[in-house]
Amino acid sequence: MNKINFDPIHLTQELVKCPSITPEDHGALNIIENHLNYLGFKCSRLNFKDKDSYDVDNLFATVGSKGKHLAFAGHTDVVPPGNESSWKYPPFAATIEDNKLFGRGSEDMKSNIACFISAAQKFIEKNGINFGGRLSFIITGDEEGLATNGTPKIMQWTKKNNIVFDQCIVGEPTSNKKVGDKIKIGRRGSLNFFIKVKGIQGHTANGHRAENPTHYLTKLLNNIISKPLDSGNHYFLPTSIQIPTIDVRNTAHNIIPEYANATINIRYNDIHTSKDLIDWLQIHIDNVLNNVENVSCSFTTEVSARSFINKPGYLSNLISKSITEISGKNSDPELATDGGTSDARFIKDYCEVVELGIRNQTLHKIDEFVYLSDIVELEKIYLQIIKNYFSKN
User: What CA–CA distance (Å, rounded) separates 15 from 173?
Assistant: First the structure.
């Protein structure tokens, strides 16, 4: 076998060149599998399917023996690039210019995967595969989409096969101003409300003979956003309430519509549960429609993630120590829970999980990029974490 290039910048380029828009793979998992096979990892390709989602290809790879078990979790799928003509360079060309590597998925999160593979290569090259512990990769092709046939099913598969993890690092882009200055020890929950208000259709000149649902919907939404739900706490920001859509589907300016619809997205902290928030919404609806005839309001819910927190413990302390050793004094990372959701929400039920990755600055944007110097720095931090994790084994 020809020697495989483990340079993290080169490997990031290889992965970015795969247009792996969810749930397509286009060779990204093959690249990772080839690299890990070369290092002696036992690789299992896991294709999951069901009637409620598209088929997804995933990868689980493991090396080592009995002892502490550290996993790295990541995703190779990316969001669509949008209007490709708006990009400075083609989104899957992995162009390098001015210390930057451009491309969809470069930040979220192919560079992070490349860095951990490169770190693993350096560690195994020095210590061999019998280093007194176990190192694994959990890689999915379905994080940006429905996330049905990805990490949740990989974790179920590992449980059925009696694979137990002690700790896991998720390679999401968590850093802020410099690599390693922020890690995630939890995440907010995400809840969607799909609201429909029904009134009575009529002519806009005869409002007394109709009942405009838009008026009640706007009053409801205004009441909902007029007062913060909470002030946050030590680990979480205040709960965020956003209204992404309002739609009456009305094509004429002189018709009072029968229906008015809206979507509410709530990113909630651990002060709340989804059930509490459903009750909270119903109270607001009852207050607005109290004693109102001929108008009704219904809603459906979608809970895409529940809030969770891994309070500072062994892994977060070890990561902080490793970052300080690489980046210098006064480099202790911020322990945060902000941002969107990640697959850490599935892994938390199996072991302690912390997120650490490249700077969060251009993910999902036109001209997404990572700094080459940041890739080099992250690989050093990952390697130091692996060294420290297995140092006593």
Answer: 16
- Residue 26: CB atoms within 10 A of its CB come to 14
Q: What angle do CA 363, 368, 374 make, to 5 degrees?
A: 85
Structure tokens at 117: 């593979």
Identity of the residue numbered 276: D
pLDDT at residue 340 in the model? 85
What pLDDT digit, counting tens, does each position of 137-175 carry? 999 999 999 899 999 999 999 999 999 999 999 999 999
Query: According to the model, what pLDDT value does residue 393 have?
Result: 53
Tell me the average pLDDT across 196-213. 96
Q: Does pLDDT of 328 surpass 90?
A: no
Give 302's strand partners.
Answer: 192
Query: Is residue 343 within 8 Å of 73, Cβ to Cβ?
Result: yes
- Residue 191 CA to residue 306 CA, distance in Å, equals 8
- DSSP code of 356? -
- As given in the structure block, the two tokens for residue 229 are 């739900």
Tokens of 333: 């990372």
Amino acid at 313: G
How much is the pTM?
0.90
Helix and strand element counts for the chain (H, E): 9, 19
State residue 2's pLDDT score: 53
* 8 A C-beta contact, residue 364 and residue 191: no
Element (H, E) at 32: helix 28-39
Query: Of 77, 108, 144, 379, which residue is the catalytic one?
Result: 77
Of 22-36, 83-97, 124-138, 325-339, where does mean pLDDT reach its minimum?
Answer: 325-339
User: How far is the C-alpha of 237 from the C-alpha of 322, rounded, in Å?
Assistant: 26
* Tokens linked to 42: 């036992």
3-state secondary structure of 139: strand
Radius of gyration of the chain (CA): 24
Residues in the chain: 393
Whether omega for the bond prior to residue 90 falls within 30 degrees of 0, making it cis, is: no
Pick the more confident residue, 392 or 267. Answer: 267
pLDDT of res. 193: 98
Residue of 14, 142, 143, 379 marked catalytic: 143
Q: Is residue 279 among the annotated active site residues?
A: no
Would you call 286 a catalytic residue per the annotation? Answer: no
Q: Which residues are CB-contacts of 356 (< 8 A; sequence separation ≥ 6)?
A: 169, 170, 171, 174, 175, 180, 183, 184, 319, 333, 381, 385
